[in-house]
Amino acid sequence: VTMKFPSLESVTAKLKDQAADANSTTVAVAASCCVGGTIVLGLLVGHIRGSNNNNSSANDEQQQVVAKKQQQGGESGTTMENLTHYILTHHRSLVVTVFGLPMSCLWDAALSLRAKYIHYTRSAPQKHAQRVAAVVEQVKQPRPEGQPLCTARPGWQSISLSYRTYKSKWRGIDMNSLIDILSVDTDRGVIVVEPLVTMGQITHALLPLGYTLPIVPEMDDLTVGGLVSGTGIESSSHVRGLFHEGCLEFELCLADGRVVRATADNEYSDLFHGIPWSYGTLAFVLSVTIRIIPCKQYVRVEYKPFHNQADAIDCFRRASGDSALVGPAPGPNDAAPQSVVDEEEKKEDGGMVAVSSTGGGGAQQDQRPAIPTFVEGLVYSKTEAVIMTADFCDAADAPRSQRNILSRWYKPWFYIHVRDMLSQVKQGESIVEYIPLRDYYHRHTRSLFWEMEMMIPIGNNPVFRYLLGWLMPPKVSFLKLSQTEYTRKLTERTHVAQDFLVPTDRMAEVLDVCDEEYDGIYPLWLCPHVHRPMPGSLLRDPPRPDVYGDQMYVDIGVYGLPKCVHEGREEEYDMRKSMRAVEKEIQKVDGFSMLYADIYMNKQEFETMFDHVDYRKLRSKYGAEGSFKEVFDKMNSRF
After folding, report:
1. Is residue 639 classed exposed, middle or buried when 0-12, 13-18 and 19+ CB atoms within 10 A define those classes?
2. Rounded to whole angstroms, how far apart are CA atoms 222 and 195?
């Protein structure tokens, strides 16, 4: 059935209720800040004093920089400006807590109210054509020769922590109004969305209907446009592949203003395959049609702690269905391996799963051991890791005593909850709990994986969680706005935020290199994905494919500060040297760097890692040359 929307008149009362909820939220934010302010400020002051005692040399260096800036500013810097700079530089966690959290909450409340209004009045589909026309008009406007096109979305609004300055010099196309879900059709099994629709919007819309996306990348604020033009991965990627592999159609605006619809089998099929990983260098994405699949209310999660790297890697590879160990993986359109048996007609026989293949040369039967629907790993040291597997389950099958409602504001951060299992359970044993599906999808959102520990060091303190945990997390955009020039440069010099896609049969050596070059940054995130040939994209084909042409890869996520930086010795860390060494290792093992983050390769190295042959043919065929820069020029702009 197609989602139906009642008339505006029939929902007036509901809208009034929503407005009342918004007012209640405003009051609640103010009340929480007032009631909890004294305690939180006390905790922050205590933490700051402790940090000052432990890192006095580092703080002395910072104060010298601030003093130098004040001297250089001369009379132009007022006392208020200097005070503001000092607070934002040395007490940023206080600013994020007092201002960033309430502002983020109010912003979310406003977007939620707007989404509900659109849901009940169905105004978005009527306005989509107008929004597309406005984009086309901007693209067709004359511009100075050689001036590239890009979206006008400010860099501070992106989820990436990288700072790229190219938009200040290029022609920005305003697409900020393309933020709505256009339709949900459960009969056809599709959802149609505009590019700035977020994962949070989609899960809120689909889960009550009993549907979800094949891939739901972590973090509420990730947008469909970014996940399509870039890439997206999650713990179901060992079966479903990357985010774009669940997409059925792209509505695109070309460099000359033409609007086309690209699918896998129409006249623009080459463009359809080339858009992923193109990072906005071929066309502007106007809307995306994505496949949806049935789901259930809960997931059954099993945690397996390990104190030996080799054992953890073996468990991870087997759980993800690594073809080198258990046989070839299903195709991107095949049935999920375990959870949605009835919905996708999967058959089990003697512990083996028969998956009907819709790809290649007709129907095939892939006999392989049952594998979980979701697989993930968290690595806490060179020897300690927890491997997690999960499957859909009904609420009736989730015992109340084993349920973990992660979205409750007072709950500890997920990665700490998982870390505690290393001491609670012996290797070879496991813990099982049941998590609501949306909570599972966004299990790392409240702590931004583990990045919140840097922004709000007391964020996982029980007192903080009970008083202000419901406001977490702050928007990444607000975190960017709270930075001074000094803290921004310090972040660029010391803060690592990288994802590397490497073959699972080479992951042990990459983990060792990351440990050495990043001076013991932990935890690390492990997420498997089946790497399939992607004709026309920048990604090279699997180097050691199975009989279906696929190979299992793993995303190794490195987020945080090196040990020497934590200890106040940031001058000992050389970001460029470390990144160059890791990139060299990634290339050596036939891996890829995710391009949302900073790269340190030169152009020749970049073109060795990524295949540009078909990509450049597409740029020439569809008029992107002269209007859009190449990917390297965007990713490398600040170097």
Report:
1. exposed
2. 10
**Rounded to whole angstroms, how far apart are CA atoms 346 and 335?**
6
Query: Measuring CA to CA, which residue among 291, 271, 413 is closest to residue 340?
Result: 291
C-alpha distances out from residue 158 to 151, 162, 175, 226, Å? 12, 9, 14, 9
pLDDT above 70 as % of the chain: 74
Mean pLDDT over 23-41 rounds to: 42
Helix (H, G, I), strand (E, B) or coil at 322: coil
Residues 353 and 368: their CA atoms lie apart, in Å, by 6
The separation between the first and the last C-alpha atoms of the chain, rounded to the nearest angstrom, is 51
Place of tokens 């997420």: 527
Buried b (16+ CB within 10 A) or exposed e, 325-344: ebbbbbbbebbbbbbbeebe
Q: Contact at 8 Å (CB) between 474 and 584?
A: no
**Radius of gyration (C-alpha) of the chain in whole angstroms:** 25
Structural element, H or E, at residue 205: helix 199-206
pLDDT of 85: 62
pTM listed for this prediction: 0.80
Q: Which residue's entry shows tokens 């399509």? A: 228
The per-residue pLDDT for 345 is 38
Cis peptide before 543 (omega within 30 of 0): no
Are 182 and 128 contacting, i.e. CB atoms less than 8 angstroms apart? yes
Q: For 125, list phi and psi in degrees, rounded to 5.
A: -60, -35
Instruction: Please report the DSSP string for 133-200 in residue order.
Output: HHHHHHHHS---TTPPEEE---GGGSS------GGGTSEEE--TT---EEEEETTTTEEEE-TT-BHH
Does the N-terminal peptide bond of residue 533 adopt cis geometry, omega within 30 degrees of 0?
A: no
Cβ neighbours of residue 218 closer than 8 Å, sequence gap 6 or more: 234, 441, 442, 443, 444, 445, 449
Average pLDDT, the chain: 80
Nearest in space to 157 (alpha carbons), one of 98, 226, 203: 226
- Per-residue confidence band for 626, with pLDDT thresholds at 50, 70 and 90: confident
Amino acid identity of 387?
I
Q: What is the largest CA-CA distance in the chain?
A: 81
Segment 504-562, tens digit of pLDDT: 999 999 999 999 999 999 999 999 999 999 888 899 999 999 888 899 999 999 999 99
Cα gap 101→471, rounded to integer Å: 6
Q: Report, as an integer, the average pLDDT of 7-20.
A: 38
Beta-bridge partners for 385: 306, 379
Three-state DSSP class for residue 2: strand
The position carrying tokens 């009527």 is 126
Phi-psi region of 232 (alpha: psi -120 to 50; beta: other; left: phi over 0): beta
Cα–Cα distances (Å) from 453 to 47, 93, 351, in that order, read 12, 10, 43
Could you identify the residue written with the tokens 């599709």? 190
CB 614 within 8 A of CB 538: no
Give the pair of three-digit tokens for residue 370.
């049952």
pLDDT in tens, 168-183: 778 889 998 898 999 9
Distance separating alpha carbons of residues 341 and 186, to the nearest angstrom: 18
**Single-letter amino acid code for the residue at 469:** G
